[in-house]
Amino acid sequence: MELRLLLTFIVCLAIASASAQTPARVLIYTRTTGFRHDSIPTAVEALQAKASSVNMIFDHTEDPAKFSDETLAGYDVLLFLSTTGEVLDANGKTAFQKYLNFGGNFVAIHSASDTLRNDMFYELELGALFDYHPPLQNATVDVIDDTHPSTSMLPSEWRVMDEMYNFQSDPRDIGATVVLAANESSYIDNGNRTFNQGQPHPLAWFQTHGAGVEGGKTAGRSFYTSLGHLNETWQDELFLSHVLGGIMWTLQSNTTRATNTSALVGNQASQTTSQIIISSSQTLTSPMTAETTSR
Ligand SMILES: *[C@@H]1O[C@H](CO)[C@@H](O)[C@H](O)[C@H]1NC(C)=O
Ligand SMILES: *[C@@H]1O[C@H](CO)[C@@H](O)[C@H](O)[C@H]1NC(C)=O
Ligand SMILES: *[C@@H]1O[C@H](CO)[C@@H](O)[C@H](O)[C@H]1NC(C)=O
Ligand SMILES: *[C@@H]1O[C@H](CO)[C@@H](O)[C@H](O)[C@H]1NC(C)=O
Ligand SMILES: *[C@@H]1O[C@H](CO)[C@@H](O)[C@H](O)[C@H]1NC(C)=O
C-alpha cells in the first residue's frame, strides 16, 4: 500500500514535469560602473510582470558575488540588461566563462555591449562591442529575419524611438545571424565611423553556438538586442515580445536543464524532477491519469 502511494506520487511528479511546468530560471544582471540608464527598474519590473505568462522566473541582482559556479549553475540563462563598464571581478569572469563552457545561455540588452570591453570571451559571446550612437531619435528598424521568435511579431519596418547603436565589428564575422537592421536613411547620424560593422547595419542578432565558449566545450545560445533605452520602450508590449522571444529562443538550446536532462547548468528543479521521470519510467507501465497539472 505504501509502495502504491509512493508510485502514485512519482507518477504525479512525472506528469507535471512531462508537461514542462518547471519554469526556466533567468538571472537579470543590471550592475553599472559607467553610464546608468534610469529605465533599469522599469525594465526589470516589466520582465518580472511577464514571468508567469512565459513560464520563467526572473531573479534580479546587481551583486557581482552572484557570479560563482554554484549560483550560475542554477540558471538556464544569464541576462545582462543595460549593464555598463567593469561589472565583474576576476573571480566573477572565471565563473562566467565556466558557465558558458558548460553550455550556459546568454542574453544581452542595449548597453550590455558597452560592458567588460577588455574581455574577449564576453565580446565574442555577445557578438560585438558598442562604438557610439547618434542622439536619441525616431528611426525605422528593418526586420531582416522574420522567422526568429524575437522578430516574428514585428512589422517589417518597425518605427522606434531609440538609440541606433554602431558597433566596432560585424557580428556576422563570428557566426551571428542578424535579425534587425537600422534603416540608415530614416535617421541622422553625423558620427565618424572608424569600424566596419557590416551591412545591413546590425541592431539585434543571435548565435546558435555562443562564440564566448572555450575551444572544444559545449556552447549554449546567445541573443542580443541593442534597443531598450527608454522607460517608454519597456512599457511597449511589442518591444517586450521582441525581448521575450529572444529569451525563449535561447532557452531552447540543448545545453541547459530546461531542455536536456543531462545538461550541466540550469534550473535545478527541472533536473531533479526529470531524473524522477527517468527512474520511474522503468518501473511504471500503467496508464497515467492526467489529473495533476501543477507541482
Ligand atoms: C524612468 O522610470 C524610473 C522609475 O522606474 C524613474 O525613476 C525615471 O525618472 C524615469 N525616467 C524618465 C526619463 O521619466
Ligand atoms: C517621434 O515620433 C513621435 C510620433 O510619431 C513624436 O511624437 C515624437 O515627438 C518623435 N520624437 C522625436 C525625438 O522626434
Ligand atoms: C528607409 O527609410 C526611408 C526614409 O524614411 C524610407 O524612404 C525607405 O522606404 C526605408 N526603407 C526601408 C527598407 O525600410
Ligand atoms: C538539439 O537537439 C535536437 C535533437 O537532438 C537537434 O535536432 C537540434 O539540431 C539540436 N539543436 C542544436 C542547436 O544543437
Ligand atoms: C545534453 O547535454 C549534454 C551535456 O552538455 C550534451 O553532451 C548532450 O549532447 C546534450 N544532449 C542533446 C540532445 O543535445
Proportion of strand residues: 15-25%
Mean pLDDT: 89
Number of helix segments? 8
- Small-molecule binders: 2-acetamido-2-deoxy-beta-D-glucopyranose
Q: From N to C, what is the helix and strand string?
A: HEHEHEHEHEEEEEHHH
Given the helix and strand composition, which structural class is it? alpha/beta
Low-confidence stretches: 15-19, 273-295
Seen as an oligomer or otherwise, the chain set is single chain
Total beta strands = 9
Q: What's the Cα radius of gyration?
A: 20 Å
Neighbour order of strands in the largest sheet: 2-1-3-4-9-8-7-5-6
What is the percent of helical residues? 25-40%
Account of the 3D structure:
With 295 residues, this protein is an alpha/beta fold. 29% of the residues lie in helices and 17% in strands. The protein contains 8 helices and 9 strands. Strands 2-1-3-4-9-8-7-5-6 form a 9-stranded mixed beta sheet, covered by helices on one side. β1, α2 and β2 form a beta-alpha-beta unit. The longest helix is centred in the N-terminal third of the chain and has 17 residues. The chain starts with a helix and ends in a 12-residue tail after the last helix. The chain binds 2-acetamido-2-deoxy-beta-D-glucopyranose (NAG) (5 copies). One 2-acetamido-2-deoxy-beta-D-glucopyranose (NAG) binds next to β5.
Key features of this structure:
alpha/beta, 9-stranded mixed beta sheet, 9 strands, binds 2-acetamido-2-deoxy-beta-D-glucopyranose
